[in-house]
Structures are given as C-alpha cells and as structure tokens.
C-alpha cells in the first residue's frame, strides 16, 4: 500500500507560505485613514507602512474599503503607503508582575523599569458578566475618606462617579482612595491627563506606598484618540483578570469624560452624525459597555471609581447625565467648598450611594441621617443667617448646626495624608451625632 500524505500534515506550512495580502492607503482625512485591498473586520489591527510601521485599528468598513484610526503618529504616511493586516488579536498583560508599574494605552511599560517579567497575556475583548450571575453587593468597601465611608458608603463591586468641574480636587480625592482602600488590587487609569500632571500624581499624590499596590495605565492628552480610548479598556481588562481569580479590585479612572471625548473624535472622523452637543450616538453606547464591565461576578469584584469632568460646572450636561444614569451612585465636588479650603470638597447633600442601605446597619444609617438633617436645615436657613434675620430657637437643627459648625467641618474635612479606618469614621460620626442631639 503506497503512503499518501495527509492534507492536515502540511496545513501549517501552507498557511505560512501563502502570499501576503498587502493593501494601500488611499486617503488620510482628519484623524483617520482609508485603506483598500484588505479584508478586515471591526476591531482588527492593521500595520501602516513598512515594518515596524504604525498600528491602526479598524473602526468602520464599507464594501470596498476600511476606515482606520491610528494608535501612533502618522508622520510620513501618505496615499499609496502599504498596509498589512495583523493576524494576532490585541493582547493585554496581567499578573502580579504589574504591581508598581506604569503602562501606556496598549499595556506596554513606560516607567523605565524594564520589561514586565512573568506576565499572562489576555485578549482585550471580554464579555460583561451576565446579570443573573452577578453576586449581590452586600459588603462595604473602605476608602479611608470619612465623608465617603459614612455619608455615601461604597459597597464592594459598586460603580461610583466623582462629579466636578476642573481644578476642584478629583485627582487628589482619587489618590486618597488609592492609599486608604482595603481592596486587594488597585488599577488606576489616567486618560487624557496633562503630561506634566502624571508624574506629580504618581510621586506626590499616590506616593511610593500607593504605587506599590497599584497598576497605573496612562494615556496623555496629546496621544491619538484611539490610544486614550484603549487605555480605559486596557485598565478595565486588567481589573477583570484579577476579578476572575477571585480578587476584590478597585478600578479608578480619571476621567470618564475624556474617554467620551476620545470616542467623539473617532465617531465624527468616520462619519457619524453629531447628536447631543456634538457627541455621536456611539459615545453613549460605549459608556454603557465600559461601565457595565465593572461590578461583581460569580467570584471577585471590581469596584469602579470614575471621575466625570462636568462641562462648565453643569451637572446636567450629556456625559454627566448619561454616566449618572448608569452608575450606582455619585459624589459631587463643589467649587465653593474647594475655593474656601474645604478638602475634600464633597457636597454630602448632593451625593448619594444607591447601595448604602444594603451595606450599612440601621444604626449607622440613623447616624448619617442625623448629620444630613442638620446640614440640610443649615443650608435652607443660610440666606437668613447671612443677613442676620434668623431668630435663634426657630429651628433646633439650625441652632445645632450653627453651634457645632467647627465640629461638623472637622469631621467632613480631611488631610490628604490621613487615612481613617471605617470603624473610626463611624465612631467619630456617632460622637458628632450625639453632640447634635440626634443619638
């Protein structure tokens, strides 16, 4: 019987020996470029120019061409430049070797500390945990910030938004949470930050102790829109990989607004119609897709802290309104408090945690309500107090808030280097509530 080779025996060799298909850049308009001659799908990566070239991701397709957004600078690229499809999917490193490291929007180290070492590569794409397989949020998560741990208690696996205008202290509050949280892993994404502020945040705000237990992903404002967008998903994917191993992760992203702005640049460049305030429809669907990937799963959890840069201090602008509808709570930072030296500049009356009732005891909730009532009464009577028209004795809550203003401010304010354990925060609130006459 004569021997006949099996077709599969040469499968690998035939695949390696097949002709390489090379496309061509036909136009470069705005932030994107058009390529013909390649058969690619949305999300595929294309290399522009001779190797190593510049990578670009496919963001739109037509019958005859594909539309790509670059992951680097397009200097020297013109119409006629060759383009090649990459066969490997976009991968993200993960593992314990990432602690204390700073990565770019593609997961590559940029801190000058050398290669990442032993790490596992996972696909950037990942499914959102099914709704019926998510465990319920029933455990409080310590942030180390008294006003958050007591008045807007965060649950493990919750997604919170920090809403504020520019220069009100969002990044500083994030750094306090990164140092004071009892989460096992901290992943921090700095998206669209000024290049000057990155090192200041790492060295001054976060510090060596905070960095040692964190993984930082950075994409500055001068990088292409796709790199800024990828940074958000790379940080989320790293957090998910630790959650899959059963860890409780704190994911902090500064800022969600700049992620939306990056998607706006991409959407408008590929021809999407501008909708609300110039944001195309894909922006709002992307926010939901990104935020829903955080939270609990069958094992482990990802607690999300997302800063939202409100446009012109308008807390009802489109991105803030959309994020608030998806998130599980919001913390509002007030500019008036910030300029008066009140830090953290959290407005407790405008802030709310939607899971606080599930992760706190009735006694703790009663303490929080006591302080909230006093603050609300003081605010309602503020105009009368300012003009000296308030008659003492008209409202006992106002009287108590005025008499103990120093004690209230001492509780609400906190130094950046002060991390208060949760039980001490509740003890302080209990003493304050007793002083106010509500406990």
Amino-to-carboxy terminus distance: 96 Å
What's the total number of strands? 17
> Which spans have pLDDT < 50 for at least 5 consecutive residues?
none
Task: Quote the beta fraction.
Answer: 15-25%
Rg for CA atoms:
26 Å
Decide which structural class fits the backbone.
alpha/beta
Whole-number mean pLDDT: 90
The largest pleated sheet is described as: 9 strands, mixed
Helix content: 25-40%
The coarse overall form would be: elongated
How many alpha or pi helices? 15
Describe this protein's structure.
With 439 residues, this protein is α/β, with parallel strands linked by helices. The chain is built from 15 helices and 17 strands. Strands 8, 10, 11, 12, 13, 14, 15, 16 and 17 form a nine-stranded mixed beta sheet that branches. Strands 1-2-5-4-3-6 form a six-stranded antiparallel β-barrel. It has a two-stranded antiparallel sheet with strand order 7-9. The termini are far apart. The mean pLDDT is 90.
Q: Which helices and strands, and how do they pair?
A:
Layout: H1 11-17, E1 22-29, E2 32-36, E3 45-48, E4 54-61, E5 65-70, E6 82-85, E7 91-94, E8 102-103, E9 120-123, H2 146-151, E10 159-164, H3 170-180, E11 185-193, H4 195-212, E12 214-220, H5 225-244, E13 248-254, H6 256-269, H7 281-292, E14 295-296, E15 301-309, H8 318-326, E16 329-332, H9 335-339, E17 352-353, H10 356-359, H11 362-380, H12 382-387, H13 396-403, H14 405-412, H15 422-436
Parallel strand pairs: 8-12, 10-15, 10-16, 11-12, 11-13, 13-15
Antiparallel strand pairs: 1-2, 1-6, 2-5, 3-4, 3-6, 4-5, 7-9, 14-15, 16-17
